[in-house]
Amino acid sequence: MPESRPLPSAVLQQEKRRAAAAKPVTIVIFGASGDLTQRKLVPALHTLACENLLPQPFAVLGLARSPLSDEEFRRQLKAGVEANARITPAQCGRWDEFAGRFSYLPIGYDDPASYEILSERLAQLAQELRSHNVLFYLATPPQVYADIVERLGAAGLAQHDEGWRRIVIEKPFGHDLASAQELNRQVHQVFNEDQIYRIDHYLGKETVQNLLVFRFANAIFEPLWNRNYVDAVFITVAESVGVGRRGGYYDQAGVLRDMIQNHVLQLLTLTAMEPPVAFNATALRNEKVKVLEAVREVQPYEVAQMSVRGQYRSRNGGPTYRQEEGVRPNSQTATFAALKLYVDNWRWQGVPFYLRSGKMLRTKISEIVVRFKRVPYLMFPKDYEGIRPPNTLSLCIQPDEGIRLSFNLKVPGAGMRTQTVNMVFDYGTHVGENALPDAYERLLVDALQGDASLFARSDEIELSWRIVDPIQEGWNEGAAPLAFYEPGTWGPREVDEMLARDGLVWATGCTDG
Ligand code: BG6
Q: Which CATH number, 3.30.360.10, 3.40.630.30, 2.70.70.10, 3.50.50.60, labels domain 203-377+429-436+458-500?
């Protein structure tokens, strides 16, 4: 575990002021014995508590089906925090105080009696904290979201005259457009849109937010950020891990629903959006929605040209998706997708956006590479192999956060030979290793503050399903045959073929390939 360093002091001061402005709160986690709670939520809460970034006092009530005592629950959480928190209990030294704020309640998610007990427990906590503010967090399997929301409504827990009530809903929000619309309808029957926080943890990543600052706080890039100068945009969200123990869920979802509909399309919208008129939830999300509206729908006859679907299968004894636990032995589920999309508006008309994401790829990396047009005429003699690549600007999201600009220069010495070099900005060296907050830290604070800017609105979710659905339907009907790829590669060779048809190769900037 690398040594923890504090956030830059100006940021920390600002965050402390935000925390101080928040009123005491009870956080209710549904799905408290699950993976997300152990690996992400409670480690993030622990780090926030250590940095004094949580409202004071606060209480956390964990709910799940398994019968657990408060003590057993706290023991489970400690293991998760030790393994995953940016600031561990040993570094913070306040574990007992932190754990003392947690309690546990076994619950039947659709059992009205459970919600009566929950209601009593919340009333008790409100008295202790002198606050009726409650943040509900749905970290359960999505199948029970509708039940939980309905029961919260029926038990009168979704509103309170003397405090705010908010609900955070994890992805996946629906599994297609129709189910997302239905879920939005069900949730809206109980909560108002401004109480709903649909989480996409990519929006909590520092470097994703930095995309907004990079684009809209610098005058030098924006004039180039359009079809006149940009040739193509490449967005990669690659993972080197497989489906792990989540085979059962993943086999129903696949990469389009698990990664593209949410994380990857969020990156596309932030890259393509117009400048919002203000930095607030409404203005920001209005602009994102306009991009999603402008994304051209892939027609059934285009699915094979505009997409590649892959599945990992090793020929030499390595991991094979169909042999993973919980996966059907003849599964057709895609663990890799590459898409070509167009954004039909004045800024981006004709510029292809290539997106790819997959499991078991060569390395874990998320990046956005903007490839600029070539110079109109190259006067230098071609004394090197091939042609120099055009300039690219790479926004490196993870794991090595930073920005790289590639351009061509003269090789020193006689003649006029050229080389491509990179100008590199590396976040790690700028702010200190391990200082970047985890996405969940940022998003939890925002939800507690009532700032929904980095959460998805109902129309945003539905529009992103509108983009993904025709591709998924095409795949279900056999368009774009399932292509197998060897783990540790960049996916099926059909991706290279898709790009070759456009005279391109996949542009990378944050990795050496
Ligand atoms: C989740 C997906 O939303 O994002 C997982 O369900 C994926 O399948 C994960 O592994 C990737 O997140 P990160 O932050 O590790 O890139």
A: 3.30.360.10
What integer pLDDT is reported at residue 154 of this predicted model? 98
Residue closest via CA to ligand 1's atom 6 equals 258
Q: Which amino acid is at 120?
A: E
Q: Which pLDDT does position 411 carry in this prediction?
A: 85
Domain boundaries, given as residue ranges, for the chain? 9-170, 203-377+429-436+458-500
pTM for the full predicted model: 0.94
Nearest CA to ligand 1 atom 5: 258
Over residues 253-273, the pLDDT tens digits come to 999 999 999 999 999 999 999
Flag whether pLDDT at 10 surpasses 60.
no
What are the tens digits of pLDDT across the range 311-354?
999 999 999 999 999 999 999 999 999 999 999 999 999 999 99
- The DSSP-derived string for 317-385 is SS--GGGSTT--TT----SEEEEEEEB-STTTTT-EEEEEEESSBSS-EEEEEEEEPPPS---S---SS
239 lines ligand 1 (CB under 6 A): yes
Q: Is residue 4 predicted with pLDDT exceeding 50?
A: no
Q: Is the dihedral of CA 407, 411, 415, 417 positive or negative?
A: negative
Topology of domain 9-170, CATH: Rossmann fold (3.40.50)
265 secondary structure, DSSP code: H
CB of 258 within 6 A of ligand 1: the answer is yes
Q: How far is the CA of 237 from the centre of ligand 1 (A)?
A: 9
263 is catalytic: yes
Dist CA 106 CA 127 (whole Å): 22
Q: What is the whole-number distance in angstroms between the Cα of residue 283 and the centre of ligand 1? A: 27
Residue 233 phi/psi, 5-degree rounding, is -125, 135
